[in-house]
Amino acid sequence: MSYNARKRLDHRERSVERRDKMLNRDRSNDRATVEEVFDNKTRMVVFDLMNSGIIYELNGVVSSGKEARVYWGTNKDGVDLAVKIYLTSSADFKAGMHKYIEGDPRFKDVKHDTRSLIAVWAQKEFRNLREADEAKVRVPKPIAVKSNVVVMEFIGEKGVSAPSFKEQPPENPEKVYKVIVTYLKRLYKKAKIVHGDLSEYNMMIWKGKPVIFDVSQSVSTQHPLAEFMLKRDLTNVNRFFRRQNVEVIPEEELYKLVVGK
User: Which of 28, 48, 109, 250 is the most exposed place for a label (fewest CB within 10 A)?
Assistant: First the structure.
């Protein structure tokens, strides 16, 4: 590994503490996050992404969950990146992965050790983002994936992510609802995937357009759970927009519209 890459990664660890302090995070949690996320193998993955020029700098945590941390990064041109690092220590995460991977024809003969499963999960998110983007669904554009790290477009500015619908409902919900329905159709008919966990928590508005994110659990339309997951997505979407006083499409009719029946 190059001296410059090592120096930048050391600088990144210091940046984590500075950035998280700005976001009102406790310093003890900062240190725990660095230790939990950046095990030796993950550090090597980040080194490789730096050496290849994909990441120049990694700053603070943007979002944190049981399964992953999302960091604000930049490339050498100063363009914002979202760097999602899946936790290799999450036992609960491993237990819940199988139902979304097994039965998806895109992923076969997957090893069941934790690191292999998480690497497949990261590949799965990257592929779902790519297929959604190719289907003209507004998602964070995928940039790179390696082991348990996914690099994608940052939806927001200067390390502050765009608000989710839960945090800030859209100002023009009728128009946005129509766009989301169009996205669901494109996901199903063109990308041939089902989001599987769509709600106000993983939809946002950025530069006037809705963006769908968190697609790691998305499955092929051939997956045994695809129909169930699609109907759950439609129920969640209609429930949210109904609360925004939108006259939504009845779910049975919406299902037929999305799948083309």
Answer: 109
164-198 residue pLDDT tens:
999 999 999 999 999 999 999 999 999 999 999 99
Cα 238–243–245 angle (5° rounding)? 95
Question: CATH number of 3-161: 3.30.200.20, 3.90.1150.210, 3.20.10.10, 3.40.30.10?
Answer: 3.30.200.20
Catalytic residue from among 39, 48, 133, 197: 197
Predicted TM-score (pTM) of this structure: 0.83
Q: What is the number of H-type helices and E-type strands within the chain? A: 8, 11
Q: What is the mean pLDDT of the chain?
A: 86
Burial class (CB in 10 A: 0-12, 13-18, 19+), 81: buried
Q: Tell me, which fold does domain 173-259 have in CATH?
A: Transferase(Phosphotransferase); domain 1 (1.10.510)
- Please tell me the predicted confidence (pLDDT) of residue 18: 45
Please report the pLDDT score of residue 91 as a whole number: 57
Percent of the chain with pLDDT over 90: 65
